[in-house]
Amino acid sequence: MSIIAIDPSTTRIGVCWLHDDAAYHAFSIKLDGKGLLERMMVALKALPTPGNVEAVYVENAGSFFGRKTNYATLSALGMMRGAILAHYIERGVSAVALVNVSTVRTALCGRATASKEDVQAALREQGFDIEDGDDDAWDALALAVWAVRKGRG
Fold first, then answer.
1. Count of CB atoms within 10 A of residue 85's CB?
2. Along the 153 residues of the chain, how does pLDDT read in single tens digits?
3. Burial code of 120-144, b = ≥16 C-beta within 10 A, e = fewer?
């Protein structure tokens, strides 16, 4: 099974390409550009090509609700997620899904409120590591591990 997991934002996107829960490549893409549409185009051009990808999972914004929410940012994240999903659907990936971050945190750490550090520690305990990885790459790796272990690819 080969999947792509993506943790999007409006300035950086975390990406993980995971194969059979073993071989993986996790990284982040900095989105340079003046406006949201320009940054979205940078993101779409930089995303991995599907090839033999069975599924694409994109982190959902559910964790932003309940905080002091900047609705302009939330709207921009929604547009970014939609563009990413459409990008992969257009390229023939039949399984694309949004996944709430709390679902991933619960599966990996036993609680939805686990911190990013807790999730990274849980992944390290399971043998995963990202050299010089930032939070976005780690989040994408966590989403990919969750997806493969749940058999959703």
1. 17
2. 688 999 988 888 899 988 765 678 898 888 887 888 888 888 888 887 767 788 899 998 665 555 566 777 788 888 888 888 888 888 888 788 888 889 999 999 999 999 999 999 999 999 998 887 789 999 999 999 998 888 644
3. bebbeeeebebeebebbbbbbbbbb
| 3-class SS of residue 57 | strand
**pTM tops 0.90:** no
Number of CB atoms found within 10 A of residue 106's CB? 15
Distance, in Å, from the CA atom of 41 to the CA atom of 44, rounded to the nearest integer, reads 5
Angle at CA 133, nearest 5°, toward 20 and 58? 55
Euclidean distance between CA atoms 111 and 82, whole angstroms: 28
